[in-house]
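Data deposition worksheet. Section B asks for the primary sequence of the deposited chain exactly as it was used as input, without tags or linkers unless they were present during the calculation. Section C holds the resulting structure in token form. Section D is free text for depositor observations; keep each observation to a single sentence. Incomplete worksheets are returned to the depositor.
Section A, Depositor: J.P.
Section B:
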Amino acid sequence: MFKFAINLLSLLISIQTQASEHVHALNTKPLVKNQQNEFVTVGAGASCDYSEIQAAIDSGDNDVIRIASDKPYLEHILIKNKSISLVGGYANCADAIANLTDLSQAIISGFGDGYIVKITTNNDQSHEVLLRNLFIGNGKRGIDIFSHHPSAVSIILDHVRTYNNSALGMYIESYSGQADVILNDSQVDFNHWGGIECVGSKGSLILTGHSMIANNQKDSGSAVHVKSGCDLTIYSPTQIVNNEGTGIIVDDSVAVLFGGSNGCENGICFGDWTSPVTVSGNDGYHGGGLRADNGSLVIVANALFEFNRTN
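Section C:
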């Protein structure tokens, strides 16, 4: 028991240090190229700088883009070798300019095929990407993340919903380049081939805040699947519930489920002491709540597993 506690503490400290560095980088570095303006705006009104998100990204005018919720964005968004912040939560561009947020999620909708948001890196730099207050749905895969040697990318999804994609809600591949992804207060739900898949030994995935991976379909899939060395950490009060597939599959990887507080950094808190990590109501072909294969290590501290089934 003593050895287990020491190993758990050491692992959590290591993961928290890594998470804190990513959050700190994304929230304290001004991702700004144009020193005269701190951001550009996207929306439907005459006061907006752009009417399309991709046009604002490609312009290079600024790396902070405020997105109004006054129109849907029917786009495939590509972020390549960039540090950038895409921030929704504004009723219109006038509110975006005044930084008056209503926390609405700007809708980025696909056409039933392809990715909706793709983040890819392959140069010799480190990149930080922030997606906040966005609804990303109705594509094939909601979010694709690819990091190739020698790149490194840190990504935060804060209050983002990835919904109703015909394949996965999110796919992360990091065999050769570093990719560290944090979901805070975010939802991945009603996707048809599973929730999130993270592949590669240079990747990590952290779920925290009131995040929920729920109601994803395909009984031979999973809500969260990490393999080939991708590290997974799930903090309370995250819920993985009611998926038509295994709740968590860990394949040749390490997973930590921690129902407790591990501190806060720049507005993002890693766990709390008032509730467990919840894995409930999942019904999968490969197992109900959790399945571990191929030498995986799973550490659980204060988690609730209930009403999971396998067939």
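Section D:
Confidence is low (pLDDT under 50) at residues 1-13, 15-36.
The radius of gyration is 19 Å.
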